[in-house]
Amino acid sequence: MSALRRAGRRAAALAIASALVASSLLNPPAQAQVEPHPWLESRVMSMPHSGGELEAPMNTLYAFERSVKAGGDMLELDVQSTRDGKLVVIHNADVDETTDGHGLVSKLPWRKVRKLDAAYWFVRGKSAEHGLADKRYKLRGARYGDVKVRGYRQIDFGIPSLAQVLEAFPDTPINIEIKGASDDDLASYLHNADLLAQLINRSGRTDVIVVSFKDEAIARFHAQAPQIALAPGQSSLFGYFLGGVRPAEGTAALQVPVSYSGIPIVTREFVERAHSDGYAVHVWFSCSAPDDWATYNRVLDACVDGVMAAKPKLLERILEARKIERPGRPGVDPCAP
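Above: the chain's sequence. Below: its structure in token form.
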């Protein structure tokens, strides 16, 4: 993982801390009645984070296809928008970290973004890492046909549009995080929420969960697409964690880090409380815990409903070895008495 990305995630963690205090003590969200949601019955899901960013170039069709073939139950991805209003699947606000291009996504037209090599800086086990020897970048150039990967097309190594992903995976549920041009650019989050609601409504898809760090973006999306399940933003999430204040109407899942600043978030007690209130619990690892055998087993033992793994093949081996139940597949309930 690059220093740039680690720094960005540390900044995000600090923002979460501030929101935690503010939401639970100063301005808690309004109470909402919650009914048990069908996502509670979809467990235990493998939700490869960005397609499994330590095993394949993140947020590419190549990564998504590999993760589904490996047994992934639900795609997890991020969306930004181009200068001409195209929703594209990329984590960062700029293209610099993962591609051979430069600049903010929001300042670039789709015709340029679509041509970039999203595997340019990929190194297995490190995600995007700059400055290594050329031989370490095994997939560099696959976007342009300079490297051949059997069974995959050149387009699979570029930045896809969200519409392309929806079309390529019509039967695979998708978890979509609304991103923005910067943490303090709320207008960009709201703009992307509008674009996402329009696209999802046109698609007719309902096997989707939408999340964002910004509660305002989630509310904007929900007002236009109330049929779609939500996961709360950071303020509402930590308002619930600390003060038991239920998130807004439409919330179906709580998507939480393994821990924060050494404080365990994913515990059996927390998960049981969430389940009793009608919420599924999905856990992510980035900057909160290592993606390794011990941690994957630990969160499974805490009774979570979905695991957003950067190493989906490793997670799959654990799920298979323990014969854990999966959506549509009977198995062992890791939390059975």
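The mean pLDDT is 91.
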